[in-house]
Amino acid sequence: xxxxxxxxxxxxxxxxxxxxxxxxxxxxxxxxxxxxxxxxxxxxxxxxxxxxxxxxxxxxxxxxxxxxxxxxxxxxxxxxxxxxxxxxxxxxxxxxxxxxxxxxxxxxxxxxxxxxxxxxxxxxxxxxxxxxxxxxxxxxxxxxxxxxxxxxxxxxxxxxxxxxxxxxxxxxxxxxxxxxxxxxxxxxxxxxxxxxxxxxxxxxxxxxxxxxxxxxxxxxxxxxxxxxxxxxxxxxxxxxxxxxxxxxxxxxxxxxxxxxxxxxxxxxxxxxxxxxxxxxxxxxxxxxxxxxxxxxxxxxxxxxxxxxxxxxxxxxxxxxxxxxxxxxxxxxxxxxxxxxxxxxxxxxxxxxxxxxxxxxxxxxxxxxxxxxxxxxxxxxxxxxxxxxxxxxxxxxxxxxxxxxxxxxxxxxxxxxxxxxx
Length: 421
Ligand SMILES: C[S@@+](CC[C@H](N)C(=O)[O-])C[C@H]1O[C@@H](n2cnc3c(N)ncnc32)[C@H](O)[C@@H]1O
Hints:
Elements: E1 33-35, E2 38-41, E3 48-50, H1 63-83, E4 109-110, E5 115-117, E6 135-136, H2 139-146, E7 153-154, E8 159-160, H3 188-192, E9 216-217, E10 242-246, E11 252-256, E12 265-268, E13 272-275, E14 288-290, H4 293-297, H5 324-328, E15 333-336, E16 340-341, E17 348-349, E18 355-361, E19 371-376, E20 387-388
Parallel strand pairs: 7-16, 8-13, 9-18, 17-20
Antiparallel strand pairs: 1-2, 2-6, 3-5, 4-5, 10-11, 12-19, 13-15, 14-15, 18-19
Bound molecules: S-adenosylmethionine.
The site of S-adenosylmethionine has 15 residues, from strand 11 and strand 17.
Main location: nucleus
Domain Post-SET: 405-421
Domain SET: 240-391
């Protein structure tokens, strides 16, 4: 039996009643090497990668400034940790709360949006700053280790595996509108969405999805409209300042520092677009998202169709099958965010989520390879954990021993189903 992985599941039970933000996030990567009792971090090659808040980073500052800042931040950290002692009960200290870039490592790279953090120590500070030995697992490196960070590389858009061929965008996929699509009668992309635009118009505070749909057809590379077209909303990157934070019992999680209005796109789920059958014997990857758009549209398994009054014309779609046996099979493709991914990989499950999953087609019309985008299901106040319903079918997850695996859900909501799978 194949392992069922998160897909759109039951989140479509939450219709968007009425559809009523630039951020970067901190996520360092640490690759530990065990060398007998002593752990080391190889500085060169095994790089630590992170996305950072600009105000957490002081780059290339003079040595005096650097030391002063370091001390200030050390005190701030101590103060901060004493305030949040409760929250960090059970943690091994030190905990990395801030990361400083000193510009004193030969392999430091900072291209403004993305910083490659190369750890602490092992460089020749007196002579030429070159890396002369492996870094030890102490000081800042130890602080990162205590957060049990697992290595992954941040990618803003999906990476396609070598054996997956993404259909080319052709002229008949595109509309002929100029600059911004506004006429729902003449825009061919609007027509595919049931002769209307899926997003609220710009003059009404655009960029929010009006209702959850089986699939949203956005404008893409073959369209004549420009990048600012509202019908490209989910392609416009992160709008809200998102923060990866540590929970007491669910590991890492995601929240927003900004208010997010209902219907706003929060993040695409990025990772490597793979064939699902390649992952049949993979049991230790919690970051696989099955693209089950077609299955949801056809209520296959326990999936429920979207509550929308416009059905998608199948002539606009490719990748479907009329063969019952084939259609009952598990989704053919998935997004694997185990090694490459973005903030979305940190979003936990909730039985009463504040996000929902929306399949979006923009550069092609193959539903099996649709983009997976998370939208706000409600108005979400700042600092509230962001969650979606993983939609696992109970008893569908099997371990390497062939036995059904069960996982307790600890979302803590009133309607909690008590089991994740
Ligand atoms: C995609 S990851 C989410 C981020 C994860 N918390 C982390 O630390 O990287 C999914 C994993 O998070 C945990 N998780 C998420 N939601 C949960 C929930 N409601 N109850 C229990 N565990 C949950 C489970 O271990 C699950 O396999």
